[in-house]
Backbone:
């Protein structure tokens, strides 16, 4: 007994996310369409689940089923319209979508700014600065404004920042298709290393069922904003496969 | 309000760093570098001095200093208001990828504007010495006036920032509005002596830029007492606008990422 007490890292309760309300308007459009209905799109309709610390959860579902919306909600970019998300005090980052850069500033300056937004202090970032630059492997461009970067360099730096500045919970959207072949391999290895840390909780969204099966402890199947089933990867993926080929 | 203070504590270092980086990047690419921060307001001052001093025969005492104070105060207000309208849309990249309290964006921007305001004020003092404007203790009264100007423009900025996300015409309207305020604030003329009667009376009471600018000139050039009542009144208005702005942003900020 004793040490069997589970630490919960993420608790999602009855999560609802709607897209509505704030729609773009202009004077012209309010004149031309006087009775415009506000469309309400329900992306998530009451999702609940829990993840234990150190576990890896995969999320599968067809396009538009609410996977990315849920990740962004867990990351705190949206707030729930109903329900709640509790991270139990853990720090969190969205890997692979990367961080927001200020394109006018240099890569080096952006490392600091995005690191601070992820909740790290300037000193902590300074310690990791060298590792990040080395991992990103973009040469002298680190001292040039981000707007001069190629899209590959952009994502390499973004990945390096989130991968080296490790947070307790990592959210990974669509398993990395970042950079050239060499970097892809490197980032895949890095991701595996991050995931295998027994204290790190990971949520992966992917269409690649092979990866999900290989990496995850548990799989959550979303359809039309609702949970169809949560369970062992092999089982769920089999059912999902059948459902999709219908 | 508690959340606002917590957020400021948590993110002010970010805001400062981001402001510094922004200032650095602004000058990194240009030949004359940071000299632009001095050249730009000086050139505006020379233009206004030529047009209104020479062409329109304005006989204001210490005219150069008089105009430069106008350019300085207006420059800050104009930047704050203009900068806030498209602030969230311009930071689309950031807002859609990581959580940041949205007024931190405005705070960071405002630091860069305050820095430029500071440079401009130093030039004002140099011009005062140059033109032999008598210095009195009233000079220190500039600080409370700048504070009120800051609070007021921060409040207006937050509200504009919110509506700028969803209301496409806002930047056009704001541009026109600012132009109107520009001419009605006495930047290159003295409202008290030029516009007597009801118009001057209402401008100095209804237009905070005109009022605060006039008060700055009182304490710097005329060495006379400012209207404490008036300054306090606009301070309270500024605080109320800030509260409305903070409330609006707290209520809506998580939806911005869905719209832009």
Residues:
């Amino acid at each position: 007994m004793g040490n069997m007490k589970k630490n919960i890292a993420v608790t999602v309760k009855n999560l609802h996310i709607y897209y509505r309300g704030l729609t773009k308007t202009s004077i012209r459009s309010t004149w031309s369409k006087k009775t415009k209905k506000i469309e309400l799109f329900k992306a998530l309709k009451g999702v609940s689940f829990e993840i234990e610390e150190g576990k890896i959860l995969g999320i599968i579902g067809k396009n538009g089923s609410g996977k990315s919306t849920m990740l962004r909600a867990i990351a705190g970019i949206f707030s729930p319209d109903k329900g709640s998300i509790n991270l139990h005090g853990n720090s969190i980052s969205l890997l692979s979508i990367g961080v927001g850069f200020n394109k006018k500033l240099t890569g080096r300056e952006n490392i600091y700014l995005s690191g601070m937004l992820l909740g790290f202090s300037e000193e902590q970032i300074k310690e990791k600065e060298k590792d990040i630059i080395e991992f990103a492997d973009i040469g002298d461009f680190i001292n040039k404004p981000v707007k001069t970067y190629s899209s590959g360099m952009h994502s390499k730096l973004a990945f390096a920042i989130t991968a080296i500045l490790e947070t307790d919970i990592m959210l990974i959207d669509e398993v990395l298709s970042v950079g050239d072949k060499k970097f892809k391999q490197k980032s895949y290895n890095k991701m595996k290393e991050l995931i295998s840390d027994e204290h790190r909780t990971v949520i992966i969204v992917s269409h690649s069922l092979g990866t999900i099966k290989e990496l995850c402890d548990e799989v959550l199947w979303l359809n039309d904003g609702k949970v169809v089933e949560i369970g062992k990867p092999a089982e769920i993926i089999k059912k999902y496969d059948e459902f999709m080929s219908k | 309000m508690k959340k606002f203070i917590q957020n400021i504590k948590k993110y002010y270092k970010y805001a400062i760093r981001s402001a510094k980086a922004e200032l650095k990047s602004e000058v990194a690419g240009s030949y004359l570098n940071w000299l632009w921060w001095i050249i730009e307001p000086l050139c505006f001052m020379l233009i206004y001095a030529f047009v209104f001093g020479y062409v329109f025969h304005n006989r204001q005492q210490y005219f150069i200093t008089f105009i430069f104070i106008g350019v300085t105060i207006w420059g800050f207000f104009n930047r704050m208001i203009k900068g806030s309208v498209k602030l969230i849309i311009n930071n689309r990249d950031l807002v859609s990828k990581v959580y940041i309290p949205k007024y931190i964006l405005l705070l960071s921007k405002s630091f860069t504007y305050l820095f430029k305001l500071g440079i401009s004020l130093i030039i004002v003092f140099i011009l005062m010495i140059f033109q032999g404007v008598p210095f009195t203790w009233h000079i220190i009264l500039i600080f409370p006036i700048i504070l009120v100007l800051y609070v007021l423009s921060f409040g207006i900025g937050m509200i504009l920032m919110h509506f700028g996300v969803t209301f496409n015409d806002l930047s056009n309207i704001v541009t026109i509005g600012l132009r109107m305020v520009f001419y009605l604030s006495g930047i290159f003329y003295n409202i008290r002596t030029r516009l007597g009667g009801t118009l001057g009376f209402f401008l100095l009471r209804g237009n905070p830029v005109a009022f605060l600018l006039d008060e700055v000139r009182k304490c710097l050039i005329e060495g006379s007492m400012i209207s404490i009542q008036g300054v306090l009144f606009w301070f309270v208005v500024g605080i109320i606008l800030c509260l409305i702005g903070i409330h609006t942003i707290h209520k809506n900020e998580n939806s911005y990422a869905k719209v832009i």
Observations:
- The two ends of chain A are 45 Å apart (CA to CA).
